[in-house]
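Dear support,

I submitted the protein below through the web form. The confirmation email said the job was done, but the results page showed an empty box. After a refresh the structure appeared. I'm attaching both so you can tell me whether what I see now is the final result or a partial one.
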Amino acid sequence: MEARLTLITLGVADLARARAFYLALGFPLHPASQEKVVFLQANGLLLSLYGREALAEDVGCPAAGQGFRGITLAHNVAQREDVARVLAEAEAAGARIVKPAQEVFWGGVSGYFADPDEHLWEVAWNPFLKIEGTA
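What the results page shows now:
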C-alpha cells in the first residue's frame, strides 16, 4: 500500500446542513458530488459528506454512538493569529467552539471546534511543522 490518503468521509445527520456548513467555511464543491454524497476539495484530497445511517450500513456496523470518537481532523494555519480567526469563521458558519485558541505545550497555538455533526476539528499554528499548502 502506498502511504497516501485521498478521501475522508464524514457521516452526517443532515446532508444539506453539512454541505452548507462546509461551503460556508470555503471548501470548494467537487463536480462529482451527487444527491446522496457531497465531495469537497481540500488541497489534494477530498472531504466527503455522506448520510450517517447510509455510511454505517455501507460499512456494516451500527450507526449509534456518541462522545469522543478517537479521531480529530486538523487545519493548520500559517500565522498564530490565524487560529482565533479560523475558529471565529467556523463558529459563524455554525460550529461549536470546543476549546478556544490557546498556547499549547508543544510551542504553538491550538483550538478546537465541532461541526454540526460533532466531528472535531483542530485549528493549529505549529512553528515547527511545515505542511504543503500552508505558508
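Response: this is the final, complete result; the empty box was a page-load delay. Residues 38 and 49 are 5 Å apart (CA to CA).
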